[in-house]
Amino acid sequence: MKILLPLAWLYGCIMQIRNWLFDHQWLKQERFALPIINVGNLAVGGTGKTPHTEYLLRLLTEEGWQCAMLSRGYGRKTKGYRRVQGCAPDEVGDEPWQVQQHFPTVRVSVCERRVEGIRKLMEESLPEVILLDDAYQHRYVQAGLNLLLTDYARPYYQDAVMPAGRLREFKSGAHRAHLVIVTKCPPDLSEAAMHEFEERLQLLPHQQLYFTSLSYGPLYAFGQCGDSPKAPQLDQARVLLLCGIARPQSLIDYLQPKCQTLHKDLFRDHHRFSAKEMAALEKKAESYDYVITTEKDAARLADYPLSPALRSRLWVQPVTISLLKNANQFNQTILNYVTENSRNRKVD
């Protein structure tokens, strides 16, 4: 990787100059008169943005806030602004499509140009709060609350800028965050380990630090979220894990001890299956009792005409996040920000 360091340094310097231009208002940032929460990261992929975004949506909608979510719609076949509702996964991206299924009352939209996307959202309806997915480096929008996610297994302070590492900008970009969240932590992470992390992150005085772990829920049958037959028993089963997400080790570690045997068919993040791969999967599935996939992969599989034999074996593993410490403080920080910055709350 040392041979890539000069390129990484050059790329990092370009991003640093870009950030300087935004910081000194040579490049314009758009402000909007409503609360905007940005969930992002310094690294490419794999920090768990979607379950964290869903946590925020659940928190806010349960408190009665009318939310909208805006994403780039990575991997979609379309361009420009699109509402997710009524679209196929390949038209809007697997993650926004998944969020829309979980939150049918939330207006989920996609647009590469976030400023344009927010304006369209506000023309169509008047949301009380907007969540931006993966827009930490999209600085044309000035979000009021920046949540920076970093993976416990590969925190940004141990990483390097692309192409030598996975960072999109120098580590100093972390100073823009209001809340820093260490994700995918062991559920039993000790206070000492948390303290060590805090020291290495070198947070600024205004920044709050939180730790989350992944929580896997009961399996549900493909296409039957919320109305599924009883989850299968895996301890006597041959199971195939079909997975196209970044860094799936947490899921593997969760499923491995539950299954008699677990075989893994792993693909890159956001992988769209070819006809040849689907034919191979149909044949391979015949050798297993169950095929388990993630919700993100299930969104992509919804585009394909699956055989009854595969559908009968296919189960989906949902995931949420749990805060390991100071959950009430985290929730209140989010709610306080939204309440204090809301100008268009609808009063019944």
Automatic annotation (TrEMBL):
InterPro entries: LpxK, P-loop_NTPase. One of its GO terms (cellular component) is plasma membrane. The keyword DNA-binding does not apply. Its EC number is 2.7.1.130. The keyword Kinase applies. GO terms for molecular function: ATP binding; lipid-A 4'-kinase activity. Pfam families: LpxK (PF02606). HAMAP family: LpxK. This is tetraacyldisaccharide 4'-kinase. It comes from gut metagenome.
